[in-house]
Fold this protein.
Amino acid sequence: MVSENLETRLKNWAWYCAWGHLGPEVRTRCASAEGNFESENVWEGEEPKIEPNMVDGELIEQAVRKLSEKHRKILKARYIMYPYHLQHTVAQRLRMSVDRLESELKIAKRRLSDELARNQTRHTGMVTSPVGLPNSVTG
C-alpha cells in the first residue's frame, strides 16, 4: 500500500510543476482612476500563499521522468491537469475505464515509490564531506 506521505509529496509535486507565472501578466485592477480606490471596509486578510517545497518537487520530478510514458501520463493527468476533477472525468480524458485508471494509478504510485527508494539508497550510500555535500574525490 502506498503511504499518505507519497500522496502529500505528489500534491507538492503538482504545485511545484505549476509554480511561477507563464504568459503575459493578468491585470487585477482597472486602468482608470477607479482602479486606485482602496476600500476602508476590508473584511478579509491577505490570502494565504502556498509555496511548494522546491527540493522535494524536483526529486519527485526526476523520479517521475524515469517512469514509463503510460505512468507519467496517468500521474500528470491526476495531479497536474485535472486535480479537482472526479475519477470518472479523468478516466474519460485518458480514454480508459475508472477501474483501469485506479489500478494503473496504484501501479504508477508503487513504481514511483520504488524509484524514490532507489534514489534515496543511492544518495545515502555516497561518501559525504564534512559539510554534507558529496565528496567528488572519494564518492
Confidence is low (pLDDT under 50) at residues 127-139. Residues 98-124 form the longest helix (27 residues). Residues 91 and 99 are 9 Å apart (CA to CA). The domain at 1-15+53-125 is CATH 1.10.10.10 (Arc Repressor Mutant, subunit A).
